[in-house]
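[Help] Beginner question about ligand-bound structures

Sorry if this is basic. My supervisor gave me a protein sequence and a SMILES string for fe (ii) ion and asked me to "get the holo structure". I don't really know what that means in practice or what format the answer should be in. Inputs are pasted below exactly as I got them.
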Amino acid sequence: MIIRLDGRSGGMRPAMRVLGINAIFHDPSAAVIVDGRVVAAAEEERFSRRKHGKRPVPFAAWELPELAAAWCLEQAGLRPGDLDAVAYSFDPGLCRDAAEMGLDDPWDHLRADYARRAPQFLATALPGLDPEQVRFVPHHVAHAASAGLSVPEDSAVLVLDGRGERASHLAGAYRGGRLDVLCGQELPHSLGLLYEDLTRHLGFLHSSDEYKVMALASYGQPRFLGLLRELVRADGDGGFTVERIDWDALAKPRTAGEEMTEAHADLAASVQKRLEEVLLDLARWTYRAAGGLSTLTLAGGTALNCVANARIAAEGPFERVWVQPAAGDSGTALGAALAVNGEHLPFTTAALGRGWSDDELEAELRRAAVPYTRPASIAAEAAGVLARNGIVAWYQGRSEYGPRALGHRSLLAHPGDRDTQTRMNDVKGREQFRPIAPMVRAERFHDIFEGVYPSPYMLFVHRVRPDWRDRIPAVTHVDGTARVQTVHAEDEPVVSSLLTEFERLTGLPVVVNTSLNTAGRPMVDTPREALELFGSAPVDLLALGPFAVHRAQTYRSVE
Ligand SMILES: [Fe+2]
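Answer (accepted):
No worries, everyone starts somewhere. Holo just means with the ligand present. The predicted complex, written as structure tokens, is below.
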């Protein structure tokens, strides 16, 4: 059959079965669309248990999301030979020589080499797959589709990441399912690589820990902003320039585990502020160039910067800003599949990963020989433990696609205890400056927070209303903000009842929500991993579907 990349199908369209694959840089993942429905999407790390799936280096580009792809096909009831297309989120035909792009990497060409051979690699990994079915989708077109085709309406779209084949940015407009590319900034200029360089300089893992830099920025003063305004600038034509930055002259390089100084925090604050300013300039340019579209959709790793997203929403020209929850490269599996499928498929849930039936969950509990109960309401049971200041491992339904826990694989706690942040960061072995985030019942959002609403995917920061800051100190960041998830009863009935019951017990319609994992590990995916976490971390209740596993102990009082 003929695959039309322009998205215009016209009249009756044949059934379409598309597998999306992201493999090239990091966060390998797979997604499958069948007959106009996103059936499944998952990251390889949830299967292989290797955080981010692979190292972000050129020689790892051959590694495919084999386990995630095989599971997606199984979930769709398809064999590899049944597919109409495989959409691969990188086009080696667009690559250029590293030196020509101003990059210093003697191995960069491996990415293009491996991508060219990906159809054969895929046919080996998924026996029966026809290599001829593999379509290369330009990396930023895949990101753009993951955002623009995930909303029902036409939208302007802005993609910013570290890099694609030869660019680091795309500004475009989706009309009637068709993407018009308005601008693309070529390498070496890259806002994503700028942030990655800073992440590395501050002693964190690049292409992984950028969100830690964003958290650190709230502790600093942007005293290097003047210099950064000279070095990092929007060019007025939709693109931007990033000059070489002498990081060492601004703050001493830090190694992992070394003490964080004021200069490090000030540098993070300065780069963060400049990033926000340039993104606002780019959003304004895109608004003008896209000609009257009132929705902006965002994707690319930079769109996980929820502080910048909140500023774009508050100060930018668009009426609505929608961010793809899997904004990083994992989302390009879905985006590539959407681009080949060629029509709007509104994104309604991030719960696209693996799930288990109640019978399967109970079988796991029996196998582990742990005492468990099936309370009348797991939501009420968990709310009771949270009200007594216990920590709950909350495992419900299908796992989330993307980096955020959204009430399916979550660690929950009381927001009213100042020590909760320390306890949660201890459970997870995280740095103590890392904030923890609240989930709130949608009906109560406006009483407590200001900012983008609804926010079901935790992609914006919000201001906590002053009279609430002392009531929910655990989730109020040092700058008076919180990264809120709004919980809507029609989408998340069990989590919504938990919040209702918690409010009845404590007067607080807010619960701390962080991802269900321990230090350096991917989020829990299977029930067995949930039991392993429960066995090795100071968690008071494991809520495994409708079942409750309690740890015998007395609870601490709320201070
Ligand atoms: Fe990307």
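A couple of things worth pointing out: The pocket of fe (ii) ion is lined by residues 139, 143, 161, 300-301, 329 (CB under 6 Å). Residues 404 and 551 are 26 Å apart (CA to CA). Feel free to follow up in the thread.
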